[in-house]
Amino acid sequence: MICDEDRKLLESYIPIAETIVATFGSNCEVVIADIRDIQSSLIYIKGSVTGREKGAPTTEVILKELRHYGDQVQDMLGRTSQTRDGRFLKTSTSFIRNKDGKVIGFLGINFDVTAFTMVNQIISEFSLAHDLDPIEPMKESYAKNIEEIFENLIQNTLTEMQVPIEKMTRDDKIHFVKQLDEKGAFLIHGSVERIAVVLRVSKQTIYNYLDETRTETIT
Description:
The protein is α+β, with helices and mostly antiparallel strands and 219 residues long. Helices cover 43% and strands 19% of the residues. The protein folds into 2 domains: 4-139, 2-Layer Sandwich (Beta-Lactamase), CATH 3.30.450; 146-218. The chain is globular and about 55 Å long. Residues 128-133 have low confidence and may be disordered.
């Protein structure tokens, strides 16, 4: 549970969030998240770009960054992401640390640039710009609850592997668990039990798979 001092630190960013949205208008959304509660991390949201509400979980992109870097995670500024309904967002995430240097949350800005992207596409068709390789935006679901996040992680990993669960060998299942681990799935409370059900194995088997893959990474 996050302490009162840390909570006050997160809440001190609210005036900044409101200033940003007031400046950039309806295409802008600002969130403040408490990553100590990944299941329900958004403690503040202003704007409606992603359709989320207070209490929504963090995104799979943030989960992956936290899994790989922990308290050493770096701010992610000026990224381009694409929502499930096809809209393009310009996003920035600034992580918030307490006095001990521990990451306790983040302030995120999401700006809908879909209209600008469409205009740019039209312009590029009449210029040499279409000869350049476009930057592929990151897929980010901006789910409204943790079940959506978990389901997206499972389905995306299955799509990447292209092996149905019923045809998976033991090595396939280990690889499946490894991919989910790298995406931060095991930061979600109850994920071991859920993944065990998906793979039709025991919880202990999932722990064994994790031990194998993490040992391989270390060696």
